[in-house]
Amino acid sequence: MEQKEILKKFLNYCLTEKALSINTVKSYENDLKGFCLYLQQQQISPLNCEKQLVVNYLLGLKEKGYSSSSIARNLSSLKQFFRFLIFENLINHDPTEGLKSPKLWLRLPKALEIDEIKKLLSVMLQSKYYLRDITMLELMYASGLRVSELVNLKLSDINFEAGFIRVKGKGDKERVVPIVYRSIDKIKKYLIELRPKLLKKKASDYLFLNNRGQAMTRQRFWQNLKVMGKIAGVNVTPHMIRHSFATHLLEGGADLRSLQKMLGHSDISTTQVYTKVSMDRLRKEYLKHHPRAK
C-alpha cells in the first residue's frame, strides 16, 4: 500500500469514524506529511517503520529548531497514526510505544494581568467594525472560548434569558458556558447596530460576520486582536485570553471541576496546569512584596 493511500485512509478515518474537527485532522495531515517525506527519503514504508526511525525524526525536528510543544504535537500525531495502522491490522507493533513527549509542564500558559485585560477591553478603535471586534474580545474573555469556537458561534447558540451559550468544541463535543450580562449587552448592541449592515441583505446563521457577510475567520480575528493589543500596549494572542479566563477564575476561587467543564477539557489533568500558573503568579507577588524576600 502506497504512503499517500495509507495517509488518506487514516485522515478519512479521523473525519468519519472519530468525528474529529477539520482543524485537528488538518494538523495531523501537516505533521504526518513531514514524517512520510522523511520515510520516503529513507526508502522505508510506514508499515515497516521501527522505533529508532521515529526517534531520529523527532531529534531532527529538535535540531531544526522546533519547539517542545511542536515536537510533542508531532509525536501525538504519530501515535494516533500508528494506533490506526494496528487497528487496521496493517502492522503488528507500534514504533511509538513507550516514547514520551518533551516535558511541557515547565512552560506554563501565559495569562494576562487583570489590568492588562482592562486595558484591552477599554481600547477605542477608529474602525467601523470596532463594535464587532470588542464584542468578540469581551465574549472570549467572559466565557474562555477557543478562537475556533468563537468564530463558529451561531445565533441559535445564545440563550439571552438564561445567560448561557452552547459551544461546539474539539471533536464536536458540545458544552454549555455561562456569559456575563456585560457580554450579553454588547452582543445585543452588535446585533442591532452592526450585524445587519454586514449582512447586506444576505442570510447567515453565524453570529460574527466579516465585511462580506460571511463567518469571521480565526486569522482575521487574530489580526484584529493584534491591532487592539498594540494600541493597549499589551502583547496578546487569542489563546492568552483563554488562559487569562481560566487563571483569573481560579484565583477568584473557582473549583477545578467547574473550570474543566467551562473549558471543555476531557481530562482534568489538562485543567490542572492552571493551578501551576496561579502558584507561579502567587510566588512572583510574594517575592515582589515580602520585605524579607529580597
Largest sheet: 3 strands, antiparallel
- Distance between the amino and carboxyl termini: 65 Å
Order of helices and strands: HHHHHHHEEEHHHHHHH
The top level CATH class name of the largest domain: Mainly Alpha
Number of strands: 3
Count of helical regions: 14
Query: Taking Cα atoms only, what radius of gyration do you get, to the nearest Å?
Result: 22 Å
Mean pLDDT over all positions: 87
CATH fold group of the largest domain:
hpI Integrase, Chain A
Family: Belongs to the 'phage' integrase family. XerD subfamily. Belongs to the 'phage' integrase family. XerC subfamily.
Keywords: Cell cycle, Cell division, Chromosome partition, Cytoplasm, DNA integration, DNA recombination, DNA-binding
Active site: 146, 170, 239, 242, 265, 274 (o-(3'-phospho-dna)-tyrosine intermediate)
Protein name: Tyrosine recombinase XerC
Brief summary:
The protein has 294 residues and is mostly helical.
Q: Can you put this structure into words, describing what you see?
A:
The chain has helices at 3-16, 22-41, 51-63, 68-87, 114-121, 130-143, 147-151, 181-193, 195-199, 218-232, 238-251, 256-263, 268-271, 273-289; strands spanning 158-159, 164-168, 174-178. It has 294 residues and is mainly alpha-helical. The chain folds into two domains: 3-87, DNA polymerase, domain 1 (Orthogonal Bundle), CATH 1.10.150.130; 114-289, hpI Integrase, Chain A (Orthogonal Bundle). A three-stranded antiparallel β-sheet has the order 1-2-3. Strand 2 (164-168) and strand 3 (174-178) form a beta hairpin. The longest helix has 20 residues, at 22-41. The N and C termini lie far apart (65 Å).
